[in-house]
């Protein structure tokens, strides 16, 4: 398939186009309602808490209510391994992007570049574009992210040693708990008692019977799966509303005056995901790490996200260029909203021309 046909097929694919327009329209709606005053000053924080405390954990857990096969397990483990390796690589590479800055500022910008808003910004978009398989991969990818965010990034930004309190905070996070519970249930579903029930898909009977693990609630306990699914479906629209609300709360002129913030935004939203895409395609071509389209697209989308809220909070809490970090976070969010549809289109086009398997 030539590139023109691939582009045409991508932009006539209604699920892809509608997912892109949904993101843009709902973000703009959040922006408009904040500027109009319908959403109050702290409303974005309320939405963010709902998304992170309820919707994303439900989304992560429900995504693992899928049958397992050798291929999906292989892909998932590949994403998990890369999700750990890439943060080790970036710990050494990202400071090189800011060699002209003083050490403290260089360290701060490197951490902000390494850690994006994969949970709040990335997972809802992955879910909307790539479905449950993408959410499984994004949840696995985030394991490495959380390990280094709550250890390396914390130590670097605070200047302190890793504390038991911070480790406890990491493992008590509802998203982490939902991810690990869902992961273990997914991996071991063939080794637990099985039941035969009417086959279901998206909560609807599709005819025939199926043999599944007793805890596959999408098949055996719709009364439990359905409310979790409703909560999971809130993740994307609420996250997008909160993003728009945040953009509507900060004066653009003030943030745009800092050239380093623009340079950072370019690195975070364009260079970081591009590096992942190029290296993953190269590794796949050499048969070193063979990932399919959904796995690679998930990783690229997760890495094309703006500043992680936790990383930004570290900068503010420990007086590590707090104003610069806030401006960088704001501008990278704007750039991410603009470029995310571009990344989605590029990934789809590359898939159409047969670059991924």
From TrEMBL:
Main localization, broad class: membrane
Record-linked InterPro entries: Mem_transp_PIN-like
Keywords: Cell membrane, Membrane, Transmembrane, Transmembrane helix, Transport
Keyword presence, Transmembrane helix: yes
Location of the protein in the cell: Membrane
Biological process, per Gene Ontology: transmembrane transport
Highest taxon above the source species: Bacteria
Transmembrane stretches, start-end: 16-34, 46-65, 77-98, 110-130, 136-155, 175-192, 230-250, 262-283, 295-316, 328-350
Membrane topology note: Multi-pass membrane protein
GO cellular component, one term: membrane
Designated name of the protein: AEC family permease
């Amino acid at each position: 398939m030539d590139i023109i046909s691939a582009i045409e097929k991508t932009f006539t694919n209604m699920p892809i186009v509608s997912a892109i327009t949904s993101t843009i329209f709902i973000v703009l709606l959040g922006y408009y309602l904040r500027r109009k005053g319908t959403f109050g000053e702290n409303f974005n924080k309320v939405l963010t808490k709902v998304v992170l405390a309820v919707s994303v954990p439900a989304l992560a857990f429900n995504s693992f209510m899928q049958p397992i096969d050798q291929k999906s397990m292989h892909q998932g483990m590949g994403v998990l391994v890369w999700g750990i390796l890439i943060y080790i690589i970036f710990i050494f590479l990202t400071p090189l992007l800011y060699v002209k800055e003083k050490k403290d500022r260089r360290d701060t910008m490197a951490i902000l570049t390494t850690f994006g808003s994969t949970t709040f910004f990335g997972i809802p978009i992955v879910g909307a574009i790539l479905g449950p398989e993408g959410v499984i991969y994004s949840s696995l990818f985030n394991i490495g992210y959380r390990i280094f965010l709550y250890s390396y990034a914390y130590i670097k930004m605070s200047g302190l040693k890793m504390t038991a309190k911070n480790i406890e905070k990491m493992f008590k996070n509802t998203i982490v708990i939902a991810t690990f519970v869902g992961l273990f249930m997914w991996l071991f579903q063939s080794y637990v008692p099985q039941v035969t029930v009417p086959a279901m898909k998206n909560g609807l009977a599709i005819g025939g019977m199926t043999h599944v693990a007793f805890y596959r609630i999408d098949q055996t306990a719709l009364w439990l799966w359905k409310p979790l699914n409703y909560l999971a479906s809130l993740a994307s629209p609420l996250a997008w509303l909160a993003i728009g609300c945040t953009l509507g709360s900060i004066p653009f002129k003030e943030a745009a005056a800092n050239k380093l913030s623009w340079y950072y935004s370019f690195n975070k939203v364009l260079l970081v995901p591009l590096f992942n895409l190029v290296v993953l395609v190269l590794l796949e071509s050499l048969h070193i790490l063979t990932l399919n389209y959904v796995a690679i697209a998930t990783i690229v989308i997760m890495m094309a996200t703006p500043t992680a809220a936790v990383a930004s909070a570290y900068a503010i809490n420990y007086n590590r260029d707090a104003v610069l970090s806030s401006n960088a976070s704001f501008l990278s969010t704007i750039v991410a909203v603009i470029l995310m549809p571009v990344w989605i289109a590029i990934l789809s086009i590359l898939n159409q021309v047969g670059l991924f398997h």
